[in-house]
């Protein structure tokens, strides 16, 4: 289950909040004596979604002092949790310890929500606003003892928790996974042969990795990569009927197994519906993508001009994907695929820390506010990056945001943070 960590100074109400979240079903499921006695995890459920709550409330200050023990708590949460609630006491305001914790959590790769607790009545609203200064986005006012705001908070938590916990081995464990896809005869097996042509580049084992026999390990640019489902490229599987359907299933499964997908397009021929369907499949699956225009050796000046027009017409939506003009036949620019795949994977892995994201959000929105809806201006309260691979952002708003404005924000996100080669998702959650 995904893990929600709750951090903060003593007496800010962390335990009360944890009890609220778990509905006082204090089922301790992890309490390993001597090792992690200072962290207890509970199982919780909200709107049918289950997750673990990691309570750091019992953490005693070490001899080195309170600040250090809380700093450690925050760092631990950053390493292990899928989302973090940092709780501050709104009646006290931000203390130097809160600021130290915020400084750490601003670098967090997991999304962070700033919770302003003890807001038992609306009189405290101005105190809450002051907590923006922690640089963790909009403070989320709640009263853990009265339950005020906790349902909204949990809705938000559910919105940003990934389905599955971070699995450090899922993708980072071995060589990065590449799929070569494209319609039949576009040159996939020729490209694979070119890349592995030099026998020394074919690797037979990598420490700590079990390699599926249908995959190939290939050393390129000083690194080992795993090309998925290359058996299908090496040995032609042609069934008399339904060959196309079969090929399309195979393409889909290769895309799903990959982290970065190289879509081959035959540049000597007009771009086809089938090419575009494959690209859409990659987009929808949310994989990093590189577009390789193959058979470039056959492209003359006229064809090149025509291709530019086809690209403008058909590929505007995916301008974020880098294009490389290659020839699997002559070997032209084939090695250039490696840095381009690297860039795409880096973008795919990127996480924008919550503090930076919200600074960006405030600046972007004040320069170009969202259009009015029903005579009202929807307010975008804050943003957090829920996941990477691909980068997925959640915007919390007070009203519906038009698709056009969402696309505008996505474009601005790309302008500010890059993400070349990776899809980016922007989801909106309306908070009542
Ligand atoms: P696959 O079905 O995508 O694996 O395509 P193949 O690799 O089998 O290639 C299909 C045909 O296109 C073969 O006859 C190749 O020799 C040819 N081909 C592949 N890449 C190139 C290229 O860059 N230039 C030229 N001129 N021919 C190519």
Automatic annotation (TrEMBL):
<keyword id="KW-0342">GTP-binding</keyword>
<dbReference type="Pfam" id="PF01926">
    <property type="entry name" value="MMR_HSR1"/>
</dbReference>
<keyword id="KW-0677">Repeat</keyword>
<feature type="binding site">
    <location>
        <begin position="55"/>
        <end position="59"/>
    </location>
    <ligand>
        <name>GTP 1</name>
    </ligand>
</feature>
<feature type="binding site">
    <location>
        <begin position="117"/>
        <end position="120"/>
    </location>
    <ligand>
        <name>GTP 1</name>
    </ligand>
</feature>
<dbReference type="GO" id="GO:0043022">
    <property type="term" value="F:ribosome binding"/>
</dbReference>
<dbReference type="GO" id="GO:0005525">
    <property type="term" value="F:GTP binding"/>
</dbReference>
<feature type="domain" description="EngA-type G">
    <location>
        <begin position="2"/>
        <end position="165"/>
    </location>
</feature>
<comment type="subunit">
    <text>Associates with the 50S ribosomal subunit.</text>
</comment>
<feature type="binding site">
    <location>
        <begin position="294"/>
        <end position="297"/>
    </location>
    <ligand>
        <name>GTP 2</name>
    </ligand>
</feature>
<dbReference type="Pfam" id="PF14714">
    <property type="entry name" value="KH_dom-like"/>
</dbReference>
<dbReference type="GO" id="GO:0042254">
    <property type="term" value="P:ribosome biogenesis"/>
</dbReference>
<comment type="similarity">
    <text>Belongs to the TRAFAC class TrmE-Era-EngA-EngB-Septin-like GTPase superfamily. EngA (Der) GTPase family.</text>
</comment>
<dbReference type="InterPro" id="IPR031166">
    <property type="entry name" value="G_ENGA"/>
</dbReference>
<keyword id="KW-0547">Nucleotide-binding</keyword>
<dbReference type="InterPro" id="IPR032859">
    <property type="entry name" value="KH_dom-like"/>
</dbReference>
<feature type="binding site">
    <location>
        <begin position="182"/>
        <end position="189"/>
    </location>
    <ligand>
        <name>GTP 2</name>
    </ligand>
</feature>
<feature type="binding site">
    <location>
        <begin position="229"/>
        <end position="233"/>
    </location>
    <ligand>
        <name>GTP 2</name>
    </ligand>
</feature>
<dbReference type="InterPro" id="IPR006073">
    <property type="entry name" value="GTP-bd"/>
</dbReference>
<feature type="domain" description="EngA-type G">
    <location>
        <begin position="176"/>
        <end position="349"/>
    </location>
</feature>
<comment type="function">
    <text>GTPase that plays an essential role in the late steps of ribosome biogenesis.</text>
</comment>
<keyword id="KW-0690">Ribosome biogenesis</keyword>
<dbReference type="InterPro" id="IPR027417">
    <property type="entry name" value="P-loop_NTPase"/>
</dbReference>
<dbReference type="InterPro" id="IPR015946">
    <property type="entry name" value="KH_dom-like_a/b"/>
</dbReference>
<feature type="binding site">
    <location>
        <begin position="8"/>
        <end position="15"/>
    </location>
    <ligand>
        <name>GTP 1</name>
    </ligand>
</feature>
<dbReference type="InterPro" id="IPR005225">
    <property type="entry name" value="Small_GTP-bd"/>
</dbReference>
<dbReference type="InterPro" id="IPR016484">
    <property type="entry name" value="GTPase_Der"/>
</dbReference>
<protein>
    <recommendedName>
        <fullName>GTPase Der</fullName>
    </recommendedName>
</protein>
């Amino acid at each position: 289950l995904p893990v929600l960590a709750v951090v903060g100074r003593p007496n800010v109400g962390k335990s009360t909040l944890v009890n609220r979240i778990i509905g006082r079903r204090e089922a301790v499921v992890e309490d390993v004596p001597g090792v992690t006695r200072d962290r207890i995890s509970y199982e919780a459920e909200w709107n049918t979604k289950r997750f673990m709550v990691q309570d750091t409330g019992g953490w005693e200050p070490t001899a080195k002092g309170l600040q250090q023990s809380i700093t450690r708590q925050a760092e631990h949460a950053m390493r292990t949790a899928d989302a973090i609630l940092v709780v501050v006491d709104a009646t006290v305001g931000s203390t130097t310890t809160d600021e130290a914790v915020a400084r750490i959590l601003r670098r967090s790769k997991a999304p962070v929500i700033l919770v302003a607790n003890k807001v038992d009545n609306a009189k405290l609203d101005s105190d809450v606003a002051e907590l923006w200064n922690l640089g963790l986005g909009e403070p989320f006012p709640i009263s853990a003892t009265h339950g005020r705001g906790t349902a909204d908070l949990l809705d938000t938590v559910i919105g940003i928790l990934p389905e599955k916990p971070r699995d450090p081995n899922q993708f980072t464990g071995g060589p990065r996974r590449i799929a070569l896809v494209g319609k039949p005869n576009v040159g996939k097996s020729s490209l694979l042969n070119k890349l592995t042509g030099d026998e020394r580049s074919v690797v037979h084992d990598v420490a700590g990795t079990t390699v599926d026999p249908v995959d190939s390990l290939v050393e390129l640019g000083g690194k080992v990569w795993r090309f998925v489902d290359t058996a299908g490229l090496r040995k032609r599987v042609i069934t008399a009927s339904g060959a196309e359907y079969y090929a399309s299933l195979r393409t889909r499964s290769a895309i799903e197994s990959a982290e970065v997908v190289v879509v081959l397009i035959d540049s000597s021929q007009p771009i086809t519906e089938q090419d575009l369907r494959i690209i859409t499949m990659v987009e929808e699956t949310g994989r990093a993508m590189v577009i390789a225009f193959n058979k470039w050796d056959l492209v003359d000046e006229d064809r090149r001009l025509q291709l530019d027009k086809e690209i403008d017409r058909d590929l505007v939506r995916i301008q974020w994907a880098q294009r490389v003009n290659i020839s699997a036949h002559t070997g032209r620019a084939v090695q250039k695929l490696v840095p381009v795949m690297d860039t795409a994977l880096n973008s795919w892995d990127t996480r924008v820390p919550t503090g930076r994201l919200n600074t960006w959000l405030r600046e972007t929105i004040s320069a170009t506010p969202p259009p009015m809806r029903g005579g009202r201006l929807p307010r975008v309260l804050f943003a957090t990056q829920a996941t990477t691979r691909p980068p997925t952002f959640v915007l919390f708003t007070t009203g519906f945001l038009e698709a056009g404005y969402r696309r505008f924000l996505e474009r601005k996100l790309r302008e500010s943070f890059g993400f070349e080669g990776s899809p980016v998702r922007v989801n909106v959650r309306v908070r009542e």
